[in-house]
Specification:
The chain has about 200 residues and is mostly helical. It has two domains: about 70 residues, no CATH class; about 80 residues, no CATH class. The N and C termini lie far apart (about 40 Å). One of its GO terms (cellular component) is protein phosphatase type 2A complex. It catalyses: [protein]-peptidylproline (omega=180) = [protein]-peptidylproline (omega=0).
């Protein structure tokens, strides 16, 4: 197989037309503090905060132990997450002071960095295979950064997190240049101004 090409994931039982969207490898677009206005007015910001709010509402009152009927796409996502979880078990923490997180995360992250496109290819439908490199970047960025290790063992319970999530997440994360300067934008999370359609 030529470099840059990837084998398509197995076809699902549904025939789907080819994607008409072009996909791009995400890149940083917020380089200075004044660029933050571009971020706050972007389609990516609107889509991202909308996704967070939808997830927040969707899990309220749901028990973790309840059996839910899920789609094939969700089953594939759960399998991907189970793979990442298995890798955690295969990468035990190092015996070290943990003020800034455990350095075993770097080993785990290196594995994710190497395998992200293959993992994403198992989830993305065949007709959207061109999106795999872009989605792989978002998967890797979603788990943190191997150069910035944080100890999050003091995070309070979910109910405490949820109480402050909506109110503080925007102010303390999404509106802070030191955080957003690392965010990457592509065709799925575009920096263009939000469309009101």
């Amino acid at each position: 197989m030529a470099e840059g090409e990837r084998q398509a994931p197995p076809d699902s039982s549904e025939e789907t037309p080819p994607a008409t969207q072009s996909f791009i490898i995400p890149k940083k677009e917020i380089h200075t503090v004044p660029d933050m206005g571009k971020w706050k007015r972007s389609q990516a910001y609107a889509d991202y905060i909308g996704f967070i709010l939808t997830l927040n509402e969707g899990v309220k009152g749901k028990k973790l132990t309840f059996e839910y009927k899920v789609s094939e796409a969700i089953e594939k996502l759960v399998a991907l997450l189970n793979t990442l979880d298995r890798w955690i078990d295969e990468t035990p923490p190092m015996d070290q002071p943990s003020r800034f997180g455990n350095k075993a995360f770097r080993t785990w992250y290196a594995r994710l960095d190497q395998e992200a496109e293959n993992l994403v290819a198992t989830v993305v439908p065949t007709h959207l295979a061109a999106a795999v490199p872009e989605v792989a970047v978002y998967l890797k960025e979603s788990v943190g950064n191997s150069n910035q290790l944080w100890n999050i063992s003091a995070v309070p319970t979910w109910s405490k997190v949820n109480q402050g999530l909506i109110r503080m997440y925007k102010a303390e994360c999404l509106e802070k240049f030191p955080v957003i300067q690392h965010f990457k934008f592509g065709s799925l999370l575009p920096i263009r101004p939000v469309s009101l359609c």
